[in-house]
Amino acid sequence: xxxxxxxxxIAENVEKATIARILVxxxxxxxxxxxxxxAETDKATTDIPxxxxxxxxxxxxxxxxxxxxxQVIMVIETEDVGEGExxxxxxxxxxxxxxxxxxxxxxxxxxxxxxGEKAEEDxxxxxxxxxEDEGKKEKGISAGGSxxxxxxSVRRLAREKGVELGAIEGSGPGGRITKEDVEQxxxxxxxxxxxxxxxxxxxxDFSKWGSVSRESMSNIRKATARNLGEAWNTVPHVTQFDExxxxxxxxxxxxxxxKVEKAGGKLTVTAILLKIAAFALxxxxxxxxxxDMENQEVIYxxxxxxxxxxxxxxxxLVPVVREVDKKSLTELxxxxxxxxxKARDKKLTNEDMQGGNFTISNLGGLGGTxxxxxxxxxxxxxxxxxxxxxxxxYVDDEFQKRLMIPLSLSYDHRLIDGADGxxxxxxxxxxxxxxxxxxx
Length: 440
Prior knowledge:
Layout: E1 2-6, E2 16-22, E3 29-30, E4 35-40, E5 45-49, E6 54-59, E7 66-68, E8 72-77, H1 99-138, H2 152-161, H3 179-187, H4 219-234, E9 237-245, H5 247-262, H6 269-283, E10 289-292, E11 297-300, E12 306-308, E13 310-312, E14 315-317, E15 320-321, H7 329-344, E16 358-362, E17 381-385, E18 389-395, E19 398-412, H8 418-433, H9 436-439
Parallel strand pairs: 12-16, 16-17
Antiparallel strand pairs: 1-8, 2-4, 2-7, 3-6, 4-5, 6-8, 9-19, 10-11, 12-15, 13-14, 17-19, 18-19
Helix pairs in contact: 2-3, 6-7, 6-8
């Protein structure tokens, strides 16, 4: 029996993915739950497993293809077990014993067939619509705005109502357009928006001045551009700068390192800052909150999850360390190592990158004296870390050689005032300068 393998609902608000790798070929035997392809979404790379055991008889996608939820990617031949073709029980023959009963049964069967055919036609219409949209996109034609976050059913409703999706401000998660948004737009009550243009201006023809080449953005780069662009446009940013004397913390780190390494981790500055951040978020709860502008409320979170920005060949990823306040430095060090490896091996799941309340971005290993990180909305603050350098500092009535680390705190000025930002960052600096007081 032939079974179709389709792209499942990978995660909330994720409708498209790019086929990064195909792991099996036509003719291969596969087992249930065996990974068939690696699919890259705008959040992470995930395996699509087989729901069946059998032989691959058709591969309907290629590496690099963009696929949608419920799109068929493979066909697998499985063994029939007491069933006829199509998985239905073979009909029994009706003898002349009860012709009337047979006719009644046949009549009912015809009615069921008619209903089934109608349902199939509806499904075929949806499938045809999806295929047409995909075909248009492959040819470079905008199928009602392929980059607009809306389900196929919403797109169909918009076409029926004569409503332009690009002119609707979505009310769903992540700006997603709902059926209610389309209905309101038809009635003239929906939110309207101007279509965004690149930098607000039309790009010139760069080839007039020399050779150029183009490269499609990865899903992760598209998401980064979209999310950070939205954050920059909606969050009034302020960045507070300070620097801390890292000398004592380096002594503390070197003293604790053997114990952590013995447990299988590596005690880094980032791991220590994770723990310090958890203490700071408990002391200053505004920094562990989010703003609900629609209801004019502040949402205070009573859990302490911290995201760590990770540089990967695919782009910036921000896995989240959960319940930082409940974990030891050794546990945090081990978890950080594992998350960084998963990020670089494209093994992060969507769950790994959700639920963060605050973010740390450490560029110290790359250099620089300071930078202004963008708040990772709906969070309200992010801590940037730059490279530590030795300086002559005036300590105990004399100049001493001290290892100083620059810190940058960007925050959402709608909730956090300048004095709050300065106090929060200075408190972190004080703990860095005397880690024994709080991290023992």
